Amino acid sequence: MLALGHNPKPASPGEMGNATQPEGASAQNASTQGSSCLHNQPVIREDLDVVSVRFRVINEPSVPVQSEFPTLLLFNLNTGVDSGGTLMLNLLFWPSNGTALRPCVSAGGTCCLFRLTFWYLPSQHSECDKAKAKVTVSAYLSPCFDDCGTYGQCSLLRRHGYLYAGCSCKAGWGGWSCTDNTKAQSVGTQTLATLLLTLSNLLFLPAIAIAVYRYYLVEASVYIYTMFFSTFYHACDQPGVAVMCIMDYDTLQYCDFLGSVVSIWVTILCMSRVKKILKYVLFVLGILIIAMSLQLDRKGIWNMMGPCLFALVILATAWVVKRCHCYPSSWKRWVFYLLPGITLAFVAIAVYAFMETNDNYYYTHRIWHILVATSVAFLLPPQDKHKKPWAWPQKLICRYQICQNDREELYGDGSLGTGPGGHVCMSPCPP
Hints:
There is one protein chain. This protein is 42% helix and 21% strand. By secondary structure, the chain is of the alpha+beta class. Strands 3, 4, 5, 7 and 10 form a five-stranded antiparallel sheet that branches. The longest helix has 25 residues, at 331-355. The N and C termini lie far apart (84 Å).
């Protein structure tokens, strides 16, 4: 409830409490007593969004305030829905007769009522009864003050059936609206943190080069996708001025999470050395299931652990069943490639799961990028023995070739013929 008016003698708390009553009682009291006590100015409530309400005075934006009686504005605040929001009041005062205005804000008798009382301080006490003014009142309810500023994000939380709103501050900023810079990071520190998280994704380049060299084109495409979206997601997920978003933040985050899990999935399946048709079927099914699970719970731990465990089961089964053609076939492969790659992967998981906190995120997550990208380069299996490195461009452009023996002869008319025992044939390129 807002009470606007002149009161040369400030009312005691008891008198104010008597004037502030619940919504129905206040309206009835104002209508019955009329100008002898209160002037009720109707206000409507407009619900805009969650914990976002605008109050608007009916008929005119300005509220007339006279010295004879106070003017009341009743704001209906719903306890269950509006709890956790911030009530903002903007007052614009046009005094007359050289008077001044001192507002007094206090809560009403119940938690859903609000009262604002004004007293005039006239320049001449004899003109007190003639004092008049207009006050423009703008009131609205928002989840966070000033949208938490540059270094914060407004968040809505629901616990035990109650909805709360608050600011989540970054870069060392604090306070109700993230305006306290006591422990704030400098611009240089913010830029360094952004560079650490983004440039560390370039460690995927060796893994991409090895995958292309060994003709693992699908795997290389997944690594390129992961490197691209991880780089720009972390460039967008920064507080302050060191921020660059090429698309919506939620889209970048989803693509980064998807690429990370899919990279692990395709790498382990590639190590299993199953038949190509089965491998690509598992690729597609796994990606579809991973995309669905990320949509349901993006930050769930089983979104990463589930595909990893299932792919490891496939890997172990393939290595045991194909004992005669088991990969790897030599101890050198274990010592110089598999064991270093597995060690790097386990260290990366330990850093991500147990060491990463909000304070050291910029450094530990950078280590996570480096370890994962390096482990992929070690774990990728070698190319097939019957294929030469970089043989894939010839296979992409080859169609048919003419094969003929050395005993072919040339007729007098220039046409191609065969000698005794010779032949001319058209055949596809050899694999």
